[in-house]
Amino acid sequence: MSAHRAPRPARRLLVGGRPTARWLIRRRWDVRVRHAERFPATGPAVVAANHIGFVDGPLMAIFAPRPVHALTKIEMFKGPLGPFLRASGQIPLDRDHTDPGAVRIALRVLHEGDAVGVFPEGTRGPGDLETFRGGAAYLALVTGAPVVPLTFLGSRDPGGSSGSLPRKRARIDIVVGEPYVVDAVPWPRTRENVRLTSAALRDHMQQQLAVALDETGRSLPGPLPQGERDE
To answer: What is the crossing angle of helices 135-143 and 100-111, to 10°?
Structure first.
């Protein structure tokens, strides 16, 4: 799968707009980034996070220690937010089908030494990482990029719906975990390679999640309200 022919996501707004975006967001919420020093200062990185709230994607792109091109469900690009998402370098992803185009774009970003964001759970929910897809592991296996766990806490209030926002002045913690190093595996990479790497990565991320909960004294928001699913 050639990444070099894939389009390069926009970057100017993603980089230049972050200080202003942080200022605006912090006027509404108390966003705290913990252990930013764990984030690799240079080189490719796969940023993998739990997914509990509507604002997790923007928070990842804006508050991670380095700019992140996050894989974002393609439905978000079909509405009025679409032009902004493209201008800010986010990568549209078809969650319901294999999406080689999105993978090629993500690999190009990594090959050029930048960061790609992934939500392995695939959708918003309790954020406990019990559901875990193999995309982050695959990107790491192809490129050898370290996987940097992020834990989001407070980006959805307990009992809040999938599209809800935290209450005003709420504290949102973004905890950078210890990176997980994966050696690049040359082609052909088997499904078993991806499965085993993904299982080990999930164990690591769940450990980092437990540490983050203990350190912050916080808890996850619980499942989405009964009968609701993230569309």
So the answer is: 40
